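Exercise 7b. Backbone tokens:
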């Protein structure tokens, strides 16, 4: 196990460890680590204690090699209430990733609110042995998020070649604690590289079963190593590290026969997640012209805290 995804190598420069390598190739980084590294740069550029990074939109221009990368950041739209920043990542002399982030002013007077049914997803028990954040109680009888209630015990059917929307794919009551092991074997990814990123994340599936199971998935996740050596990742960076896996855990095609690679990732956090564990409630749909969409609701022990979208290139291998 590597000690971190990245080692600092000078101003705005980092060396990617093999822990960043994604399942499609041992030479190309998974989208999570470079997205999180770009967000780290955005958060550190001309910081404003009166604002929080609420949205990050990442465009992956080409495969990010497992090598030294540089990140340059600038402010596109300064402001007291909102500010837009951009980070550009380069590797081997090429731009490989662009990220833009909106920082939103903190408001002490704004009330917190979400749909009545958007508490902790049904059945989303914390993994055995995982500590709950201080004061974080899971609401009794919490319903599926985003108001997507289904009849008791009924799952929303998915059209052929697709999976159901996040938070609507499973039904029924919470699983028994004995059904959630303290640790699970590394999920299978047929003909994929598992010694990098997949091994650097702790996966605890509640449904879906793995990357080779063609259905929506709900899985608790946490990075086993820091983003940058010697640093504690911010909540946004921690969320980006795993949010890019939504399309993988909810894959609807056999990865041994098809590619389904995301060209982007947009993550909005209406609040900062608490604790190291994040639940991905993910589903993928694919159109008839080789374009896919992965949607993921992210939750912590307090309930939903954000949503991620990914556009997918889908093609035979």
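Sequence design result:
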């Amino acid at each position: 196990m590597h000690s971190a995804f990245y080692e600092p190598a000078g101003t705005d420069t980092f060396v990617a460890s093999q822990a960043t390598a994604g399942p499609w190739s041992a030479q190309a980084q998974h989208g999570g680590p470079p997205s999180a590294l770009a967000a780290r740069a955005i958060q550190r550029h001309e910081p404003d204690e009166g604002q929080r990074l609420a949205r990050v939109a990442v465009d992956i221009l080409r495969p990010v090699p497992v090598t030294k990368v540089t990140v340059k950041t600038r402010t596109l739209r300064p402001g007291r209430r909102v500010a837009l920043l951009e980070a550009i990542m380069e590797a081997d002399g090429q731009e490989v990733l662009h990220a833009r982030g909106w920082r939103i002013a903190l408001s002490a007077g704004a009330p917190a609110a979400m749909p009545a049914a958007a508490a902790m997803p049904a059945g989303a028990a914390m993994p055995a042995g995982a500590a709950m954040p201080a004061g974080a109680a899971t609401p009794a009888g919490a319903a599926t998020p985003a108001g997507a209630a289904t009849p008791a015990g009924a799952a929303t059917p998915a059209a052929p070649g697709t999976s159901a929307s996040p938070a609507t794919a499973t039904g029924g009551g919470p699983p028994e604690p004995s059904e959630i092991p303290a640790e699970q074997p590394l999920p299978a990814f047929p003909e994929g590289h598992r010694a990098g990123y997949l091994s650097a994340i702790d996966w605890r599936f509640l449904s879906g079963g793995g990357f080779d199971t063609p259905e929506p998935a709900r899985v608790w996740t946490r990075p086993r190593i820091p983003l940058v050596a010697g640093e504690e990742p911010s909540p946004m960076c921690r969320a980006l590290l795993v949010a890019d896996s939504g399309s993988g855990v909810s894959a609807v095609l056999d990865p041994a026969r098809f590619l389904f690679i995301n060209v982007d990732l947009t993550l909005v956090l209406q609040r900062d997640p608490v604790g190291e564990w994040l639940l991905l409630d993910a589903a993928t749909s694919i159109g008839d012209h080789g374009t896919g969409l992965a949607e993921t609701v992210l939750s912590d022990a307090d309930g939903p805290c954000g949503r991620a979208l990914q556009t997918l290139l889908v093609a035979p291998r």
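Instructor comment: The chain is about 10% helix and 35% strand. Helices lie at 32-44, 197-200, 235-243, 246-249.
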